[in-house]
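Much of what follows relies on a compact textual record of a protein's fold. The record below shows the convention in full:
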Amino acid sequence: MVERKKEFRKACAKAVEYQISFQRPDGGYIWDGYPVDAFHKQALSWQLGGHHVEALKLLNWVVEAKKLRADGQLEQYNGDNYKHAWFFQGAHLLGRFDISYPVMSYLRSQVTECGGLPHFDGDEVVRALSTAWTGVGALYFGDLQLATKIADCCISMLKQQPREDRFYFQMTRDGKLVTESIKPDAQFIDTTQPRQCYWEVGFAMLLMCKMFEATKDNSYLDHAKSFLEFKLRCYKDNFSFWGSGKSALAAANYYKHTGDERAKDAAYQFCRFVADTQTKEGGFRYEDEPDELIIYVDHAACFSVWAGESLKIFDSLGV
């Protein structure tokens, strides 16, 4: 395992360096042919990978190019709360409070009656993805009251699940789980099928682990276990698919607090997936995805965070 872990770390470092190779001289991350709203993950990915200067230059560019609006939204993000939650963490952990405070103010404005957040401003339903990731951000911000409200929403979503082989990940703004009885096209993770949107469960599980750290309330670990048990029931690619990273880091955090070997094995399974599927340049793309630069770069940002932070946890524990 020692040699394999070296490979895992090397893959994460290479993924960060690959992203940075596209940074513009002015610090920016937009160029011809690249989406104008796809720089939300870089500040967090780069600093966690040890490249603080490049991350700060990116944030300088955001300010100088007037990408941050007065209401805390990022220009051209079109009310995407998930992207704002990513961007908030990158700015806040770098101490750029002139950026992170306005962004968190915007995210607070998006919290609905049930404690959840829609993926996009104006959506009729809230979603686990945007809700739980904002909840983790609220903990970094020191707003335990907000984090608790958001966590309660995720717990309610978990408790309302009607089937063990599915996880419905949307709710109405007043807190009703969206199943086919509410919307015929209700969205869910299907344990019997591959390539599912596992991140919906992964983010919620990660929030539960972080809420336990903040409160020492064991009920959060109980809920984290429920999310893990669901993930373990999923198809055999549950921790070796491009959407598995969020739940891998959640599993590493869960192992840290419980010693559950299944969680450790799951996180390492994702690390192996990352090391074994990386391109020679440093990015990632899979057969079910378009051959576009944004795919390679976006995965490089995600995977460097999920695998890299999992490895740091395991290194700290000597496992």
User: Anything to note?
Assistant: The two ends are 9 Å apart (CA to CA). Residues 293-317 form the longest helix (25 residues).
